[in-house]
Amino acid sequence: MNREVLIFIIIIISLFALNSITINHYFSSIHPTHHHHPAASHHRTVETSPSNIPYRRPHPSKPWPIIPSYLPWSMNPNVAVNSCEAYFGNGFTKVADILPAKVASSWFRCHYSETLRTSICEGGKIRMDPLKIEMSRGGEKLEDVIGRREGDELPRFRDGAFVVEGNNGGLKRRNLVGEEFLRKFIPVEGDSRHPIRESVRSIVVVGANDFDCEEWVDEPTLLVTRVEYANLFHTVTDWYSAYVSSRVTGLPNRPHLVFVDGHSQLDETWNALFSSLRYAKSFTGPVCFSHVIFSPLGYETPLFRGLDEEIDCHGVSAHDLQQSPNHHKTARLYEFGEMIRAAFDLPVNIHRAGKAASGHNVLFIRREDYLAHPRHDGTVEQRLSNEQEVFDSLSRWASDHVECKVNLINGLFAHMPMKEQVRAVPRCFGCHRRSRCRSNAPGIRNTEHGAS
Fold first, then answer.
1. CA–CA separation, 38 vs 109, rounded Å?
2. Residue-level pLDDT, tens digit, the chain, 452 residues
3. CA–CA dist 238, 233 (Å, integer)
4. N or C: at which end does the chain have fewer Cβ atoms within 10 angstroms?
């Protein structure tokens, strides 16, 4: 072998070795990057599940969809009280670190909104004991639990329903928060029951020797307690509260969901919006969460507060709001509506499309006799006696005025999956007072007709 060939071979081998080292260094150093809210980053200081605790196989987390109206949720301490952002976005500017994060121990904090008068609380390395939560199992078929009392479906928490580990191994057992903290951060009007307040009140601090689990969940998990779960309006408030809680705490992906209530099945949209769901009573013993968020009640969202409070807010696109900031305008409902449509794999830019070539879909909401919940007798209370006549008349009008391109949709919801309901609602007609057509997509127009 002559000298030139030998030099050429040595050069080729050297280049191959250098290339291999470079590729190995590249792949060993990269990692996925997500935007984390500073307040949520502390849970990374807590150990993941110990090797001696049974481990649940990880469930894949759904990514957040890319939606046109999304605006950052990072906390702005200068957000004006009673502004649209304080009502509908991140007005949770007062943070109480009740149990600061330390390596291998639990942590707990609450984000308080002066505008909404409630808190989003979150923590790491928290144990939930379903045996200390008194309620029905939940998740059953409605037909199997006819007659079950409402009180049986709402949770009651005994001390120790939730447990955190203190910083010292021999720590004396104590409650995490007292009544003064609850009055300031989770106030309640009158003497009404407040499941979220009661769940936080039940949290006790124990030493490491008393912190044991039968199962460990590493993925961020949202705890949701629904009260009026069978009413569409109240359900939307619960969806919105869960969405806001996920964004305020800076979750990089859509969280998993645990219902801390004993209601029967009504889960289609929840499954679409979040990564997975199960009921608290489906756990057979104490379960530990690496990161858990307590979602406020739907009653504490601006959607419900606005029934009694004057909220001076107007919806605009995110682009318009960025061009002309205004405390009395918000794009958060556009964002939420797009989130729902994206969850069902529907297009999210319909408000920019203008009049569709196929015309306007008009959803005519009708009422049928149906079982709404275990205490319902299956008959509706308010219904037009000539409902079919009204629908037929509108159908004839639409047929006679083809230039208007109106597609009248027979809104028999019991026969329409939720995805089809969402697809059908650019225009919404209700033939009774309780149609409650709420905007889950930009540009929806609502009209209600009912007997006086």
1. 13
2. 566 655 555 566 665 555 555 445 444 433 333 334 444 444 433 444 555 555 555 678 999 999 999 999 999 999 999 999 999 999 999 999 999 988 778 999 999 999 999 999 999 999 999 999 999 999 888 888 888 888 899 999 999 999 999 876 557 889 999 999 999 999 998 777 899 999 999 999 999 889 999 999 999 999 999 998 777 888 999 999 999 999 999 999 999 999 999 988 888 899 999 999 999 999 999 999 999 999 999 999 999 999 999 999 999 999 999 999 999 999 999 999 999 999 999 998 755 444 555 677 787 877 776 656 666 555 666 667 788 888 899 889 988 888 888 888 887 777 778 888 888 765 544 444 444 444 444 444 444 444 43
3. 9
4. C
Alpha-carbon dihedral sign for residues 185, 191, 197, 202: positive
Give the position of tokens 């993925």. 219
How far from 379 is each of 376, 387, 399, 435, 450, CA to CA, in Å? 8, 16, 32, 16, 17
In the block, which residue shows the tokens 């984390």? Answer: 36
Taking the C-alpha atoms of residue 301 and residue 149, their distance in angstroms, rounded to an integer, is 26
**From edge to edge, which strands make up the β-sheet containing 445-448?**
406-411, 360-365, 427-430, 445-448
Q: At 43, list the tokens.
A: 């849970």
- Domain boundaries along the sequence of the chain: 38-305, 354-448
Q: Are 194 and 188 in contact (CB under 8 A)?
A: yes
First to last CA, the chain: 104
pTM metric for this prediction: 0.79
Helices 232-248 & 332-343 angle (0-180, nearest 10): 100
Continuous H helices in 134-193: 150-153, 179-185
Instruction: Check: CB of residue 391 under 8 Å from CB of residue 366.
Output: yes
Q: Count H helices and E strands in the chain, helices first.
A: 13, 21
* Residue 183: φ, ψ to 5°: -65, -35
Q: For residue 324, what are its two tokens?
A: 């002309």
